[in-house]
Amino acid sequence: LVVKAMINAAKSDGEIGPKEMERILGKLKESGMDGGTQHWVMMEMSKPLDLDAFAAEIASPEEAAEVYAASLLAIEVDTDAERQYLQRLAQQTGLNPAVVQYINQTLGVA
């Protein structure tokens, strides 16, 4: 879910830019990504964004917070599309607004 969160956040503005791809793949390589995982990541990156289906996979408030934080780590929130995606992600997963604010502050996102 965390990797999907990073990929979906990167897709939220319509494309996965080189910096976003590098950031995602770099974090995965740090964690010991194997060839199969890299193939899966590339396949996920090529799929269209489906926030409804993704949000349905998130089973708890703890997972929602983790997914939201991972989404922030994957991108520079510098477009309206990215801000709207994060807002919709928080809403669709039932993430408490106070938790969203805390995560944003902790990760330095205005």
Draw up the topology in text.
Blueprint: H1 2-11, H2 18-30, H3 35-46, H4 51-57, H5 61-74, H6 80-92, H7 97-106
Helix pairs in contact: 1-2, 1-5, 4-6, 5-7
Describe the structure.
The model has no long low-confidence stretch (mean pLDDT 91). 72% of the residues lie in helices and 0% in strands. With 110 residues, it is mainly alpha-helical.
Which terms summarize this structure?
mainly alpha, 110 residues, single chain, 7 helices
The gist of it:
By secondary structure, this protein is mainly α.
Q: Compute the gyration radius: what is it?
A: 13 Å
Largest sheet: none
Overall 3D form: globular
Low-confidence stretches: none
Structural class: mainly alpha
According to DSSP, the number of beta strands is 0
End-to-end gap: 24 Å
**String of helices and strands:** HHHHHHH
Beta strand %:
under 5%
Helix content: over 70%
**What is the residue-averaged pLDDT?**
91
Number of helices, counting only DSSP H or I runs of 4 residues or more: 7
